[in-house]
Amino acid sequence: MTGPLLEAKGLTKTYGALRANEDIDIALTEGQIHGVIGPNGAGKTTLIGLLAGDIAPDRGK
Fold first, then answer.
1. CA 8 to CA 61: how far, in whole Å?
2. Model pTM?
3. Residue limits of the ABC transporter domain (predicted)?
């Protein structure tokens, strides 16, 4: 078995005092379906932007 298609460790993004995402670890593997759910303002769009490389994280890789 190969490694994950996409992996992130410790992703953190803040906007001033607001922590949109903090210390996110995720590994997406082939053949699985993944979803991101949560209420408005939970940081879902920021997470997708971080994973896509559209938003630079404050910490993590």
1. 6
2. 0.86
3. 23-61
